[in-house]
Amino acid sequence: MQQKNIKVIIPAFNERNSIAQVVQDIPKSWVTEIVVVNNNSQDDTAAVAKEAGVTVLDEPRQGYGYACLKGIAHARTQARLPDIVVFLDADYSDYPEELPQIVQPILEGEAELVIGSRALGQREKGSMTPQQIFGNWLATRLLRLFYGARFTDLGPFRAITFEALEKINMQDKTYGWTVEMQLKAVKLGLKTAEVPVRYRRRRTGVSKVSGTLKGTVLAGYKIIWTIFRYR
After folding, report:
1. Integer angstrom CA distances of residue 146 from 14, 92, 149, 158, 188
2. pLDDT in tens, 69-112
3. Is the distance from CB of 103 to CB of 29 less than 8 angstroms?
4. Which letter, b or e, does each residue of 35-48 get, where b requires 16 or more Cβ atoms within 10 Å of its Cβ?
5. Are 183 and 230 within 8 A, CB to CB?
6. Under 8 Å between Cβ of 119 and 151
């Protein structure tokens, strides 16, 4: 068991049916705090998360980035700042038990930002829609073309040193969060790495992004806009 101060931030919007399982599968000996940010849920996501014994914050402003920024702001208030922050989705598509693999390159001094790559790992059939797969392919190709970044995915399961996170100075409030972090890391010359991760189909509900036409279009537009914005 390592001694680093690792905090997990989980943005959650209407995930009452999955959040407890996500929390349960996180290796507790590896983390000092699990923070679920209830992002304007219309169900009892917050109550279920509290029952699971984690820190629950409320962020009424809708948006993935808003929720992540709320979690980061909380981390800054702690007497002991985290060494590493892990971001993880609340829908149980990721495998939380793979957290040690995600943080290992940081612990070994090989990286400051680690992306869990679904493209390099095993994806359950139907876990990603064709538009998600194409969108990731296009975004990573543009990142390589404009920034020389060699990523294969914009996967949400990721780890970053708190020092690097503060340097990046995240700004995006919605769909451009993941790509902003990656392109800024490259622009700042931070050490980055990818590790293969598994990915499964949602067991309940539909994706807030890829599950709707509106979400798909808005996410695609914001990701591409962000890539060009920082060029």
Report:
1. 36, 33, 8, 22, 14
2. 999 999 999 999 999 999 999 999 999 999 999 999 999 999 99
3. no
4. bbbbbbbeeebbeb
5. yes
6. no
Domain 6-229 has what CATH class? Answer: alpha beta
The pTM (predicted TM-score) of the whole model is: 0.92
Q: How far is CA 139 from CA 55, 60, 104, 231, in A?
A: 33, 29, 26, 13
Cβ atoms of 183 and 226 within 8 Å: the answer is yes
Cβ neighbourhood burial of 223 (10 Å; 0-12, 13-18, 19+): buried
Q: Which of 199, 160, 202, 161 is nearest to 178 (CA)?
A: 160
Pairing of strands 84-87, 158-161: antiparallel
